[in-house]
Amino acid sequence: MSSFLRTASKQVADVRSFLRESAGGQSIKYSAEKGAKHIIYIPYITENVIDPETGVETSVMKPCAIQQSVHEWSTQDGKFKATICLKDVIRHQDENDPNSPIINDGTCPFCDRVSDAWDIYRYRKELEEATCKLTGEQRKNHLDATFSSYADERKAKDARPYMYLLVVKYHLNDKGAEVLGSDGLPEYDLKVMKLSASRVEKIQQQMANSGSDLLDSEIIFEYPNVDDRRLLVSQSTTAPVFPDRKMVTKYPGLKDKINQDIAKFEWEGIEKSFPEWTGMTSVEAKKVCDSLFEQWDQYKKELAVNPTAKYLEYVVQTPTATPSISGDGIAANGAMPVVPQIPTVPEVPVVPTVPQVPNAAPTVAAPTVAPTVAPTPVVPTAPQVPNTDPNAVFNGNGGAAPTVSI
Ligand SMILES: [Zn+2]
User: Fold this and answer.
1) Over 50: is that where the pLDDT of 370 sits?
2) What is 204-265 written as a DSSP string?
3) What is the CA angle 69-368-108, rounded to 5?
4) Which one of 42, 216, 261, 276 is at 20 to 30 Å from 118 when CA atoms are compared?
5) Are 167 and 42 in contact (CB under 8 A)?
């Protein structure tokens, strides 16, 4: 009888692929990395198309990419969530049998809740305007910052388009130079970069300014040595590599090798790295949305029979911060401290005017228009993912850098 160990154990082919497999699907996700330099090649696929009018066959370069619109929201306990917009997605239980039960009927509960989310925003905004006792510039600054965070906290937002771009990330040594494999060619990993439309536009523009195309280009990304995930991306620099300095130019045979890998690449499975691609059934999505809006729905129902009904989901607890004797709680410029704002709800006692550290304005742009047209607050798009990039242990950057998808 063969032993379990002999039957079930697997030889480790090499340490690098072991680490990559252990990291699961995360290894395919491209992540920004604190203080690091990345050299990325943007591969492409060539397609022959025949001009219907002239009959002439030409080849067209296309990015290896998929795109879709994504709804993003945060749960009450601050967890980042995302799902692909379900609008017009029709899916049957058995994809080969159109008569099997339908599991996606083309509706999107997240889209359907966007206006409710704006109603909540307006409710909170009006309450804050009515109860805020500040005046002048202080009032304006406080309200701007508050409304901006209310906009961020919306429970449902319009889906935003993202491109998932397949890229080649070269392995670099601690001097920033390429690492060569046994075949004499630079080592690399295929990665999927998640890019918002504005980010694609920015990179595209930078390439255009230097006279190159995005496809078939090599770009150097350099990330600042900061912990703030938003700054990590917004303060990063991208610079195109001169055509004659590109790895694919310097190393004959590299492009062929990359193209062979690209041809084998399958998008199937990227939901392990990008959970929004897991998808949801119509029923699941409705359940999630109904639960997010449970208290709002109750309030609307009660309001129909009781005009004084209140929506209490965001009613803040009595602040516990106490000012220190040294006056730390007072703004440095000697301005009146911000009074904690407690909505005038009967159950909540009126809070004395305890000086409190003024609310730090979030670093997001404040929407300046009425929410009847959706403003475009700058929303961080960074899912909070642990750094499980197995390459981190090889590139000499300490390996523990926080990561963020861009
Ligand atoms: Zn949708």
Assistant:
1) no
2) HHHHHHTT--STT-EEEEE--S-S-HHHHHHT-EEEEPPGGGSHHHHSTTHHHHHHHHHHH-
3) 25
4) 276
5) yes
Answer whether 32's CB lies under 8 Å from 405's CB: yes
Report DSSP letters for 123-145, one per residue.
HHHHHHHHH----HHHHHHHHHH
Torsion, Cα 391 266 73 372, to 10 degrees, reads 130
Measure 160 CA to ligand 1 centroid, in angstroms.
9
Q: Quote the ligand 1 centre to 339 CA distance (angstroms).
A: 39
Encoded amino acid at 218, one letter: E
**Alpha-carbon distance values, 247 to 32, 214, 397 (Å):** 21, 15, 22
What's the predicted TM-score (pTM) here?
0.68
pLDDT band, residue 1 (cuts 50/70/90): low
**Nearest-CA neighbor of 315 among 290, 355, 337, 347?**
347
How far does CA 363 lie from the centroid of its chain? 17
- Name the amino acid, one letter, at 319: P
Strongest mean pLDDT among 12-16, 112-116, 212-216, 267-271:
112-116
Does the structure show a pLDDT above 50 at 22?
Answer: yes
- Encoded tokens for 21: 């497999």
Q: Which residue has the higher pLDDT, 160 or 380?
A: 160
Query: Which residues have CB atoms below 5 A from the ion given as ligand 1?
Result: 85, 87, 108, 110-111, 159
- Comparison of pLDDT for 212 and 357, the residue scoring more: 212
Bridge partners, 218 (sequence order): 41
Contact 118, 156 (CB under 8 A): no
Q: Measure 374 CA to ligand 1 centroid, in angstroms.
A: 15
Query: For residue 10, what are the CA distances in angstroms to 21, 23, 309, 402?
Result: 13, 17, 64, 32
How many other β-carbons are positioned within 10 Å of the β-carbon of residue 373? 9
